[in-house]
């Protein structure tokens, strides 16, 4: 049903805080549709031939919940995908997908994901772009494919959908896409997926794909580059949140590290607090300064007034007079034991430094999160890593070679990346214990996502929390630990 002033929206709650409820109306969807239309023109001006095919987009919806007073509430992506804006979208290239709408609207994300992949594989030679709202969904889709490709090939070979797909909309619509038995298509896909190494698997399965479209991707860039053999551009087109849309990337072919978004002053009223400032220092959109860092404050058309978003942004330039911003970090996700204050950006830098060393080995980092462990004396940082063997034979049960000396080095590399306060607490005052890396088994971060989905998050908007505050999530991680390592310096 369309939203009005009596409907509510809710955030995912996975960026480090609890899920937030907020008022919504159709102006949000008006603005989102406006941004999507502009995005289409930006892409078509930068990517030749993209309009001559279909998009394999991993879109998901979630059943709406109700507030204590009985008002319906949905996450932002579900609100759009269930609205008339999406149902009655233009029939142009940008809105032509490999998956029928019935798949997108299926609330069971496992059936949804399986059918997305099946439809995309059957039409593999028509796919010119691949994407999702968040990069974590793309990575999860590839991992799901690793576990399901044999069954998918069986469906394509026989022309029959697996019996466990029970959603009627999925069964009816996907059966039409699947059509008759296609043994040659299944044979080709089987040959590709049965290879020992999955480097470049995306480009092998979808040879006409011109780019991967996704957002919130920094930590997933190496993984996506690996699966695309470093040949497909990774594009982030829109900067948005549950509260509002902010802006567009007008240079979509730039490197992920260089992405900046041109803010749109017509979608909300934006104000900015200088980093280390307060609400008394707030400036308007037209008064931000090049090279300065700010936290965004939003007043929108749905009733939110001067809401602090919690994102730290850097002014990188101007398009005409419209400021352009680069997302730097979430401001409210920190590790702290003593006097140390480690924010998300510091954590990313530390993990990336250790990851550079990891990349020279046969292992790759799948995902990570962290926890400030005060149960020890002194307390210390714990970083959970899920790693995989780049050359893994998927039928082999051989365990990865996790060397104590090597992972202790990774611990020290991370510690060396933290600021001077951390180093004083750790090495001089000894009020911090050595950093600990805990390696967790394959699939742990999928289970972590399941926890947050069960608590109301949407798979289509899910982002791995970088600092664990949930007892249930911590329990999942701890039960999955296969090896622990400390820095020895």
UniProtKB/TrEMBL annotation:
Q: Where is the GH3 C-terminal domain?
A: 346-471
Q: Name one Pfam family in it.
A: GH3
The protein's name in its UniProt record:
4-substituted benzoates-glutamate ligase GH3.12
Which GO molecular function annotations are given, in alphabetical order? ligase activity
Source organism per entry reads Camelina sativa
Q: Where is the GH3 middle domain?
A: 261-330
Which family does the record claim for this protein? Belongs to the IAA-amido conjugating enzyme family.
Q: Which UniProt keywords apply?
A: Ligase
């Amino acid at each position: 049903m369309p939203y009005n002033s009596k409907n509510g929206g809710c955030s995912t709650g996975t960026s480090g805080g609890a899920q937030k409820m907020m008022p919504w109306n159709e102006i949000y969807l008006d603005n989102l549709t406006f941004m999507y239309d502009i995005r289409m023109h930006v892409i078509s001006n930068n990517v030749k031939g993209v309009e001559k095919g279909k998009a394999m987009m991993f879109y998901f919806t979630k059943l709406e919940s109700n507030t204590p007073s009985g008002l319906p509430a949905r996450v932002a992506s579900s609100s759009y995908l269930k609205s008339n804006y999406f149902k009655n979208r233009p029939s142009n290239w940008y809105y032509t997908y490999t998956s029928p709408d019935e798949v997108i609207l299926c609330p069971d994300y496992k059936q949804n994901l399986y059918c997305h992949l099946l439809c995309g594989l059957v039409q593999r030679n028509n796919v010119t772009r691949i994407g999702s709202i968040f990069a974590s969904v793309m990575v999860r889709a590839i991992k799901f494919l690793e576990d399901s490709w044999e069954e998918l090939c069986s469906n394509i070979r026989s022309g029959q959908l697996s019996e466990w797909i029970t959603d009627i909309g999925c069964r009816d619509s996907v059966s039409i896409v699947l059509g008759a038995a296609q043994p040659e298509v299944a044979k080709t896909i089987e040959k590709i997926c049965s290879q020992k190494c999955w480097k470049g698997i995306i480009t092998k399965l979808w040879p006409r794909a011109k780019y991967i479209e996704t957002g919130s991707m920094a930590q997933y860039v190496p993984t996506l580059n690996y699966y695309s053999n470093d040949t497909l551009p990774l594009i982030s087109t829109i900067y948005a949140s549950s509260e509002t849309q902010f802006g567009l990337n007008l240079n979509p072919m730039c490197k992920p590290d260089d992405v900046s978004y041109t803010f749109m002053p017509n979608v909300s009223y934006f104000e900015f607090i200088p980093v280390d400032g307060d609400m008394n220092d707030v400036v308007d959109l037209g008064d931000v300064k090049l090279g300065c860092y700010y936290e965004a404050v939003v007043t929108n058309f749905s009733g939110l007034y001067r809401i602090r978003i919690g994102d730290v942004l850097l002014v990188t330039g101007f398009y005409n007079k419209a400021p352009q911003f680069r997302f730097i970090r979430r401001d409210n996700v920190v590790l702290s034991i003593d006097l140390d204050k480690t924010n998300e950006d510091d954590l990313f830098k530390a993990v990336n430094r250790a990851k550079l060393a990891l990349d020279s080995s046969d292992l790759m980092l799948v995902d990570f999160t962290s926890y400030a462990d005060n149960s020890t004396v002194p307390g210390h940082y714990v970083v959970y890593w899920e790693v995989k063997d780049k050359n893994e034979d998927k039928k082999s049960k051989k365990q990865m070679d996790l060397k104590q000396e090597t992972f202790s080095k990774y611990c020290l590399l991370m510690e060396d990346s933290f600021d001077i306060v951390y180093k004083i607490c750790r090495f001089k005052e000894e009020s911090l214990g050595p950093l600990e890396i805990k390696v967790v088994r394959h699939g742990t971060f999928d289970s972590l996502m399941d926890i947050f989905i069960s608590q109301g998050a949407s798979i289509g908007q899910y982002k791995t929390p970088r600092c664990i505050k949930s007892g249930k999530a911590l329990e999942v991680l701890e039960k999955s630990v296969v090896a622990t390592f400390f820095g020895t310096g």
